[in-house]
Amino acid sequence: MTDPEAALAAMTPLAAIRERIAHTAAIARRKAESVTLVAVAKMHPVESILPLIAEGQRVFGENRVQEADAKWPALQEANPDLQLHLVGQLQSNKAEEAVRRFDCIHSLDRLSLLTALARAMDKTGRRVPLFVQINIGDEAQKGGCAVADLPALLTEARAADLPVMGLMCVPPAGIEAAPFFALLAKLADDHGLASRSMGMSDDFETAVMLGATHIRVGSALFGARG
Ligand SMILES: *Cc1c(COP(=O)(O)O)cnc(C)c1O
């Protein structure tokens, strides 16, 4: 008899998350490889990142350009196959820095940023895949494009030939996330976008069930942020 809980507890945090993704993907009749685990390392030092790289994790996330510039140049040089994703709000005046530093940006949410990113990609010659972040719970204080503004933003993105691969959301705190994940998946379907960045430490299994292609997991991998 193996007790699944005890088996998970004996693993490293990364191995346990991988196991939970595989288990959930199997239930959802999806391939585990169709889910990209983005290890969100914000507020955690390089020493905490190194063991995950040693365990084979290759996709990491940060939420601030400045913090990424401080932590990642040496790691990226030593591990050229790492991918760094920006999962936080981006100011237009940091667009060029972000395009140089990151391999994917999850937070395109407005026209002014779209214009800045298009200019930065032209200037640097780098084409960085983008997610449009949706304010999925229509929350006043939250970043993200309003659902109603998505069609116009996508039209502009296509006109500028930006590589938009999907939609991203952070659902409202404290209530069941599943309806918001389902809504994000439907919006992505409606607009012919293949990727969905949704699900964090507390709800990534729900997100995988509902079609997440990218889950962004921080505290479950690194522990609580200081
Ligand atoms: C911090 C952060 C995460 C990771 O959150 P955890 O709850 O620690 O897993 C995911 N997405 C975004 C946008 C974040 O800022």
The assigned structural class equals: alpha/beta
Assigned CATH superfamily: Alanine racemase
CATH class, please?
Answer: Alpha Beta
Number of helices: 11
| CATH architecture name | Alpha-Beta Barrel
The succession of helices and strands, N to C, reads: HHEHEHHEHEHEHEHEHEH
Average pLDDT, all residues: 96
Total domain count? 1
Radius of gyration, CA atoms, in whole angstroms: 17 Å
Q: Enter the CATH topology name.
A: TIM Barrel
In percent, how helical is the residue content?
40-55%
Straight-line N-to-C gap: 38 Å
Describe it:
It is a single chain. The longest helix has 15 residues, at 13-27. 37% of the residues are buried. The mean pLDDT is 96. Helix 6 (95-101) packs across helix 7. The protein has one domain (4-222): Alanine racemase (TIM Barrel, Alpha-Beta Barrel). It has helices spanning 4-9, 13-27, 46-54, 65-71, 73-78, 95-101, 111-124, 150-159, 178-190, 204-209, 219-222, and strands at 36-40, 59-62, 83-86, 104-108, 130-134, 164-169, 195-197, 214-217. By secondary structure, it is an alpha/beta fold. Bound molecules: pyridoxal-5'-phosphate. Residues 40, 42, 63, 87-88, 170, 200-201, 216-220 line the site of pyridoxal-5'-phosphate.
